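2024-03-11 09:14:02 INFO queue: dequeued item Cupin domain-containing protein, len=121
2024-03-11 09:14:02 INFO validating residues
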Amino acid sequence: MRIIRLGALPRQTIDNHGSKRFSVSALGITADAALVMVELKPGGLIGAHPAVATQLMVVLDGDATVSGADGEPVSIGPGQAAVWERGEPHETRTVDGLSALVVEGDVDLREPGHLVDRGDT
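2024-03-11 09:14:37 INFO prediction written
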């Protein structure tokens, strides 16, 4: 077993698409998806851009206001996740700050909960 200190991962600041106070940390990669940690400092923004693949953002801590193709803002917090499909324009904002896990790639998210690894039950 290994323990990964998420706060200690190297971070890369991102300012593409008008993003502000935004950094990412590579966590892992599979043949089909990348796993990254996202941090938005208070007042941060991930500017509107199209998803390059299916994208799942799981909020671990803080607040997020997310929007998709319709541009309607939706507030989410810890224990909630946003899913954007390939090509869908999307944006994420925070007032107080945000830590999230993002899985981006060829991921089947049509019916969460239906694909449980029976070996773990």
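2024-03-11 09:14:37 INFO annotate: The beta strands are 12-14, 20-29, 33-50, 54-62, 64-67, 74-76, 81-84, 89-93, 98-105.
2024-03-11 09:14:38 INFO item closed
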